[in-house]
Request: fold
Amino acid sequence: MGLQPYLILSAVVFCIGLFGVTTRRNTIGILLGIELMMNAVNINLIAFARYTASVSGMVFTVFTICITVTEAALGLAIVILLFRVRRTVMADHLDLLKG
Amino acid sequence: MSDTALHALIALLLPAFSFLVLAVVFPLRRLGRPAAWFSILCAAGAFWAAVIAWTHGGPDATRAVWPWLPSGGKTIADVGVLVDPTSTIMLCLVSLVALLVQFYSLGYLHDEPPAALGRYYVYQSLFAFSMMGLVLAPNLLQLFMCWELVGLCSYLLIGFWYQRPSAARAAVKAFWITKAGDVGLLIGIVMLWRLTGTFDLTELRSLAASNAIPVAGLSIITFCIYLGAMGKTAQFPFHVWLPDAMEGPTPVSALIHAATMVTAGVYLLVRTDWLFALTPDVLLIVAWIGAFTALLAAVLACVQDDIKRVLAYSTVSQLGYMMTAIGAGVASAGFLHLLTHGLFKALLFLGAGAVIHAVGSNDLPNMGGLARRMPQTAIVFIVGTLSLAGIPFFGGFLSKEEILGAVWAGGLTGPFVLLMIVAFLTAFYMFRVVFLAFFSTPAPVAAIAHGATVGRVVPDQATGITPLRVAHSHLHNETVVEGAHVNETPHAHEPPVTMLLPLWVLALMTMAVGVMSTLKIGGFAQGEGEAAPAWLTPSAVGVATAGILLAWLTYQNRTINASSLAAMFGPIRSAALKKFWIDDIFEGLYGIVLLGFSRIIGWIDRYLVDGVLNVLSDWTLQAGDELRGIQTGKPQDYVYGVGAGVLVLILLMRLVF
Reply:
């Protein structure tokens, strides 16, 4: 099997993630979308690592997974705090930075 | 280095040392009297060194200089001392008067708070240093530097009682008007440097002697230099600052505004007389302006009721005398008058200071009959007055004759006539002061006849000084008028010995100079080559005597009614009371030209320069207002923004690069 199917899979997953990030009103949904996009990146990294037979892509993937986990943990913590303070987690209600 | 130059250098550096110590070691300065004594000791040392430099100096010039502005192997200008008979005798005069004035100030400023007294002596030391630096300057650049320094000291000392608005105003006025002349001097010096390539006086002199200075265009240069002298030496129309400078303490008036600094202009012209000799047209201007100034100031002196102002105008008048002599081409006569004038005018001012100290007021109508209460002051004051009037055996006699002779011999009939009138007026107004202050009883009649101060004179002696007192007493805790004990005339008394001693020294020196010069002994044996006409001396003395007689008849004997005398000269008198509107003209010029111009500039700044900036900033603000709608605060909109940005970048990379 060549490189292409992996890349297509990765692109599809990325787009689903992006769609989720841009359209979900719920902050947790947005976080889920980000997770998907990250995993699309991971697929890409592994695919290229196999294709070029180098280890560095796999190493990077391990890093990415670590970072994704931390990010998810932090993100969820923030969402919980946000809920406590604002009683809502809907992104379109959180517009304190409006100019 | 020769012995003479070394001593001149010591004389120069001792006041500088005193200035530095007092300026830096502020605990000493704030002690007041110890600081004063330190400064006086340094001044005494300087005087001693100056006398040695004078007596040991030969007729030739010696110099001790160090390179100052090096430029490619040679120096543009040096610093150091140039010692010749002219500079050493001037040095003696400066250091002598400085010493006596500093000593006198101990008594005069007795009631000043210690810190202010220390400040006074810092300024005095700085002044002594700068003036000596000016006198000894080997080149025009050092001279200019010291010239500005003495101007600064003058400003600081006029404004010594800076809490008084009038003193602060007078200080600023003096500073600006002399500065106007100084710009001319600076331009003249630089133009002369362009023409000859040197600032050095010795080199310039040898160039002038060998006719190596091109005469074309030299007139402008000498006129510019004369402009500087006009400002400093209070020549018409720049004389307006000097009478106002009397706001300073009286010893300062004696030192700076009578004996030394104001004569710097005369000294400058004496120093460069070989240069001015090349431009006779400028010399003619010098002579006419000098004579006119002398007459103008003498007329103004006749109507003043403030004793210091009379002396101030008489200083202006005598400076005009000196300038006329220089204009007539006989700088030595002007210089001789500078020296004798320095002695007797310092004496007169210090005497006036003693009177003010005792009476507590400057106004003549508040005085009268003081000769009985302070006989010693009266005697020395009369010695000074006779000197100023040019009576034989007194200090100013010979120098005045020399000037009159020089002006006559120079063929300047017009200035000569003016100067003769001035001689008459000088004797008249000075003896008016003597009779009003020392002899006549302070009668209400005399005061009213004198017009100007009606209403605040009679009968209560104290009313005249009340406004000053009020103005001053909330500044210091004690009541001080002009630094004096406030005493009404009945309690007037001789000044303390610190003030009497300098007075007697100056009086005796004036007498000594007068006797020696009249009898032509000592250093006065060799007169000027060309003899003045035989009728000159009798007529000059006669004119002076007539002036004295008129003053006596008017103010002592009262044969002539002062008010009818005043009425005879009605228009002139009323014009003189208004100072011939010269101050008003200056004020008008300031108000119309300067303020008008600055109003135009202000309008341009406010509406054109600021306008452009305001429009730009308004646009920026508006644009920001419009654009802030983009910031929705919703995170997903920012994701769209990032996405759009990435797309644009990709498109750019595809299409453009």
